[in-house]
Design goal:
- Strands 7-6-5-8-9 form a 5-stranded mixed β-sheet, with helices on both faces.
- It folds into 3 domains: 6-104, no CATH class; 108-159; 163-404.
- Mean pLDDT is 81; it is low at 1-14 and 356-362.
- Helix 2 (107-118) packs antiparallel against helix 13 and helix 5 (216-228) packs parallel to helix 6.
- It is 45% helix and 15% strand.
- It has 14 helices and 11 strands.
- It has 412 residues and is an alpha+beta fold.
């Protein structure tokens, strides 16, 4: 007879408890989804209950349920029987906003798949990886289906890269270059990314481009392509790392756009030229510069930095001084926007985790696959980007109103 130790029994008990909890969570999710679908249909029918045909019969009525459908979610596979609606109005029909027709996977799963692929999970390993995450019995995510999904995504990326931009206006623009590993190539591709802020204050992914390092020609090609597709108005301000070839290309394509150095990149570059023992104090003083309430206060902190460190750390001070003309441009824009204009955070925060993980693997197999996965991850993250603070002030910026220390100048 098989004997179990206390540890074995405890381990088995934990496994049973965990499985039970997962089953309970899935059943709870199934009931909530079913209830939400029933309520959605009931509200739809009630809305049109007074519409009747010439015989006095209602045009919109309940008509049983569809066959059971299994939907893959982050909690596993959930079976559901969707209510059916008989809508006899001309050219009208019911479409569920909660569970659209033919939907088999929650949107979060479509984000998960490119994330896993970009982080080094091979196509053949997907069933095992997804089973560990979503539970057993999940269908529709075989290696063959993953290959088909990637082909669809590649076409989506090609179509998105050629989309018409006529009539679009981006007030602010953030630019950065991100490197990823590719298994089948010696060089690491440099992915050029641009995010724009629209006139209503929403951030949009504007461009993803396969660049040759961070060169002037790569950025110029990207910016000219944006202009060719209809982006005629110059952004009011561009934010990027000063080391990029972007800055040489920008005035050649959008001469009316002002420049703002990203303070996150600048701070890192300066501190890299100083010993670790002085970095905390130097970092605090750098923060004091770009967090100052006025340009004058920022200038005082700037001068104090040179008074303290110029003799001992000339390289660090030289790094700060060379970009003095583009460090404090944000003071000429509304104070409510400063949080967004001082750094390239919209890009950095989106790709930081992916960039960290890609160092640990050899990433995707080709440059095309890398660009496609970056596109899928970025468009997924785009849905969570928050609107600019003080977006109601953007029309003033577009109209060319002057600001000093974040406040609108009064007319003389």
């Amino acid at each position: 007879m098989e004997e179990y130790t206390e540890v074995d029994t405890a381990t088995r008990a934990r496994g049973v408890t965990q499985w039970t909890l997962e089953a309970i969570c899935r059943e709870g999710a199934r009931r909530m989804l079913q209830e939400a679908l029933e309520l959605e249909v009931a509200e739809y029918i009630e809305r049109f209950q007074d519409l009747k045909d010439k015989d006095g019969k209602r045009l919109v009525v309940r008509n049983g349920r569809h066959c059971e459908r299994k939907v893959v979610t982050g909690g596993g596979q959930i079976p559901v029987k969707q209510p059916r609606v008989n809508d006899r109005r001309e050219a009208e029909h019911f479409s569920s906003a909660i569970l659209p027709a033919y939907m088999r996977r929650a949107p979060s799963i479509d984000t998960l798949i490119p994330a896993l692929y970009l982080k080094g999970v091979s196509t053949s390993s997907f069933p095992e990886a997804l089973e560990a995450i979503l539970g057993k019995g999940v269908s529709g995510l075989s290696p063959a289906n993953i290959v088909r999904l990637k082909e669809v995504w590649e076409q989506e990326f090609r179509d998105w890269s050629k989309r018409d931009l006529k009539g679009k206006r981006y007030v602010y623009m953030w630019a950065d270059a991100i490197y990823f590993n590719v298994r089948l190539e010696k060089d690491r591709p440099c992915v050029l990314v641009i995010v724009g802020a629209t006139e209503d204050g929403h951030k949009e992914l504007l461009a993803i481009h396969d660049g040759q390092r961070e060169s002037h020609l790569s950025w110029k090609h990207l910016l000219l392509d944006l202009k060719r597709r209809g982006l005629e108005e110059d952004p009011c301000l561009a934010i990027a790392d000063r080391a990029l070839g972007f800055w040489k290309a920008l005035p050649e394509v959008f001469p009316g756009t002002r420049a703002q150095q990203c303070w996150v990149h600048k701070t890192a570059n300066i501190l890299d030229k100083m010993p670790k023992r002085v970095q905390p104090d130097a970092k605090s003083l750098l923060h004091e510069m770009y967090l100052a309430p006025t340009r004058e206060d920022a200038g005082e902190a700037y001068n104090r930095f040179f008074a303290l460190y110029e003799d001992r750390y000339p390289k660090a001070c030289g790094c700060l001084k060379k970009d003095e003309d583009v460090l404090f441009t944000f003071y000429d824009f509304p104070a409510a926007h400063w949080l967004h204009l001082r750094t390239t955070n919209p890009i950095e925060s989106t790709f930081s985790t992916v960039r960290h993980r890609s160092r640990q693997t050899k990433g995707c197999g080709s440059r095309t696959a890398t660009l496609t996965m970056v596109f899928k991850l970025a468009t997924g993250a785009e849905k969570r980007w928050r609107r600019l603070n003080g977006h109601n002030l953007i029309p003033l910026v577009v109209q060319g109103e002057s600001f000093a220390d974040g406040e609108q100048k009064k007319a003389a």
